[in-house]
From TrEMBL:
Organism: Oesophagostomum dentatum
Membrane-spanning parts: none
Lineage summary: Eukaryota, Metazoa, Ecdysozoa, Nematoda, Chromadorea
Protein name: Protein HGH1 C-terminal domain-containing protein
A Pfam family the protein falls into: DUF384
Domain Protein HGH1 C-terminal as annotated: residue spans: 87-158
InterPro entries reported in the protein's UniProt record: Hgh1, Protein_HGH1_C
Length: 171
């Protein structure tokens, strides 16, 4: 953890991810991250969840065990929530991940997050508050709604060939 990663090195490596070999690596990584051990998913979702979320018994049972009957509070930082939503959105690039997120009831938590953040949307379009927080809130809302849209629809409803393993291969 003490070692810093040089950002320019990370960006230089990015084009390799778009190669066919890179696509297989991403798919394998997603399968590892979202395997039977729900630790990664719980790490992403717990800051987005809240003990006051109104989930049905069926929705609760779908969640990873550590999030069922969750007693924590939602992360207050808009920036942190945005990064977590973006990470979940990136996971949706692979079919395995989309299926796993649906299976684990992620939609219900995101729906509740959207409801909870509706109260903070009382700003004029284009209005930027301290530190660009209002702009970030609008960006979070857009990504969150896109993510919800992916999770509530299946591949055939999105005009995606069900045999396509990664949406990145469609680019």
């Amino acid at each position: 953890f003490g070692k810093k990663i040089e950002i320019s090195r990370v960006f230089r490596k990015k084009p390799k991810l778009r190669s066919p070999k890179g696509e297989n690596s991403i798919t394998a990584l997603h399968q590892t991250l979202l395997g039977d051990n729900d630790l990664y998913l719980v790490t992403l979702l717990s800051p987005l969840a809240d003990c006051d979320d109104e989930l049905s018994d069926e929705e609760i049972q779908k969640l990873p065990l550590r999030l069922q009957y969750y007693e924590g509070k939602r992360e207050n930082s808009v920036e942190v929530r945005q990064k977590l939503i973006e990470a979940l959105y990136q996971l949706c690039a692979t079919k395995h991940s989309r299926e796993r997120l649906r299976e684990k009831g992620v939609y219900a938590l995101l729906r509740e997050l959207d409801k909870a953040t509706e109260d903070t949307k009382s700003f004029e379009p284009g209005m930027i508050g301290e530190g660009g927080v209002k702009l970030l809130t609008a960006q979070q809302e857009h990504t969150l709604h896109a993510l919800i849209g992916i999770l509530i629809r299946y591949e055939d409803e999105m005009a995606i060939d069900p045999s396509v393993d990664s949406l990145r291969s469609l680019q």
